[in-house]
Every structure is written in C-alpha cells, then in structure tokens.
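User: Run a structure prediction on this.
Assistant: Running it now.
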Amino acid sequence: MNFTIKQPNPALNFRSVPQRRARTARIIIHHYHHERATPQDVHRWHLNNGWIGFGYNGAVDMDGTIWEGRGWDNVGTHTGYNNGDSIGIAVQGRFDDNTRQMPDAQYNALVWLIKHLRSIYGNIAILRHSDLNATACPGRFFPWEELLRLQYRGGVEAEPPIRTVTLDILGRVEDISGYIESGATWVRLTEMGAALGFEVSWDETRRIPVVMAPDGAVYTRQSTTNATDPPPTRHVAIDILGEVQHIGGYSESGATWVRLTEFVKALDFVAAWDVKRSIPVIKPSIPTEYTALTLDHVDEKTLTAAAEDITLLKTITHWEARGEDEKGQILVVNVIKNRLNSPRFPNSLREVIFAPGAFTPTQRADFDTASPNARTVAAVNRALEGADFSQGATFFHAISHLTPDAWHERAAREGRLVILFDHGNHRFYREA
C-alpha cells in the first residue's frame, strides 16, 4: 500500500516564514479534538490564537491522507516549550471516549509517517502531547500502546510514496523520482547522478554512496562544504569524485535522496527555476549570477540577460518590500513570476516590471541606484528556488493607500479581481 504526503489546497497562508529547527529529537502526537476539521480549519483556529498559522508539522486525516502543515523541518507551535526539537503530528478526530476507534486507514498512515520520519531523522522518540504538558491530548482512548509497536493493521505492506518531479536536465525534459517539500526539490541520488552522466555505486566498507565520473573523465568543481562547517540537519555523506562531502539528504528503504541544488552544485552544475515552465533547470555552472528566468542557451548574450534580470528583481523587491519580512519580499517576486506565467501580461521580466502603471517605484529617478541588503537578496533567491506563498496573486496594493475608489478595490467589487489575503503592508489579488 502506498501513502502520499499532500500539500493542503488551498494552501495555508502563514503570517510569517516558519523558523527552521536546529535539531530533531522527537515526534509528538496530538489530535484535532474534532472529527471533521480540515487543515484549513485548524489553520484558522491557530491564526486566531495569535500564532503564525497551522501549528503542527503535519497531520493525518481519518481516510489516511497525510498533510504537510508547518513543514517537516520547521519549528511548530504545538507543545508549549517543547517545539524547538520536535515534529508535531496531529490526527483528525477526537479520542476522549470510546465511541469511535481510529480507522485502519488513518492508523496505518500514521504508522507509515512515523517510520518515514525516523528513516530521515533517526530513531527519534515518540511521545504524546500529554507526556509533556498538562492536557489529555491525544485522548485516553487513543491507540497508544498499539501505535508504539509500529505494526500495521491487517497485514498492510507499505512502501514509500511513488513521486516524480519533472526536470530540464541539460536540455532534456524528463521525470525522475523526487518531490518538492517546503520549497526544496529532493531527488533520488542514483537517478539524478545517471541523468547527469555519472556513475553511482555503494561503498560497503565505508557505507556511503560513491559518485564517479564515467571513463575516468576529470571534472573541475568547488566543494559545497567547508571543513569547519557543521553538516546540515538532514544530511548524508557521499564520496563525490574522490571527496567526501555532507549534503542535504537522507536514506530510506535502501535508497538515498538528496537535495537537488546541493547535489548538482557538488558536480559543478547549477539548478534554477524556469518560471515559464515551472520546472527546475540544470545547466553547467557559469562564472556569474544565474537564473533560468530568460536563459535558454549558455552564451554571452543570454548570460548577460540573466544577470540583468536578477539585478532587476532584486531592485524592484528592494523598492516595493524593503520594510517587509522575508515572506513579504518573496511575495513580490511571486507576483512577478505569476504575471510572467499569465497570457494577460508581457512575456519578459523587463516588460512586466516597466509596464505603464505596473510598479510605481520604476518612476523614481533613483530607481537604478538601489542597494538591496542581504535579507532582500536571500528572499529573491528563495523565491527563484520555488518558495511561493502567493496563491496565484498577480496584483498587490499598499494597504495604507487603499481607498474604496482605488482601482484594485473597484475591480474586486466588479468581479474582475479576487481579494486573496493581506500580508504586511500589502493586500494581494488575483485575476477573476
């Protein structure tokens, strides 16, 4: 039986970007205390609590659907002062009385999810909310002793979910085993290595994967790690062309999964996001800043255009959102990318940004003199890597300057735009 980890739809819109955990030592189990609540319902409740949104890292419905919530690597808001090193999982339903047993589908999905997380983070402890705080959660009739045995009901044989991602690999578009989680693309090591022309094997003595160049070919590349840097939270050791490196990854059921950007960088390639096709593109590394916004062929003309596009994105984000948090800055880039993907807008970055009346900062005499800070640069890079909180927004307007007669508000009343959400000092809209 295969289980699937899904992203809630519509997406959960957090008030701010969740913080990454420094370490992961335990899994803490909760229940919604509600038999029909959805992730969106719980998200709304948690926003009303004053939190940034859905407090659990993930959740499991009664039908066995597994939802990603706050993100598996992020700090949740679920167990008081115990959030910094834990993954919070909530199950739909309530287990205060014995009127309803946990359905087999839900129980088996929860068992699979715990095994899946342990394959990534190690044999971490499993606790109940009530083990740490003064609460009955997840309820006195929760099947706790049964769960601790981590055995499926009914002889279910569960395999990791079958997932694929579409990549443009050196000009070839193909599907390989992988998935996108919290804005990062993860791929199966053997398939990704083979797609780039490398041989991947297993060194039983050192118990690490080995990536070798075929036919003794020599590749020049720069290490992705520094000898003094601690390895990332989720990492694997890989012998890459004779050098053991720690890159984002994990092993599960005999397969090694790696973070796409880190792995291809170790082989002197670059992965960037093609906003027109919404797929990652892998190209040879180039000696300048790079983005797939306009790059189709590696030549001097397109390299120059790519560098100019990145500079322009940083500049417009600086002027439109320099006082916003990281999510607010990412949202500006999201809107621009969404316009590039819409047939109602121009098909080049410069034309989108400099369209009459589109972005008022372009009218400033000092527009080109902006000096985006490191926070803005990081937000732009994260957006280009795939972080998207926009829900398809193609317009935004400063809330402080909104009036009932503002074009955006009139367009919403007339059914031409849909109001999506407010974040920071901006209200976001999409085309109806």
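Confidence is low (pLDDT under 50) at residues 216-232, 286-304.
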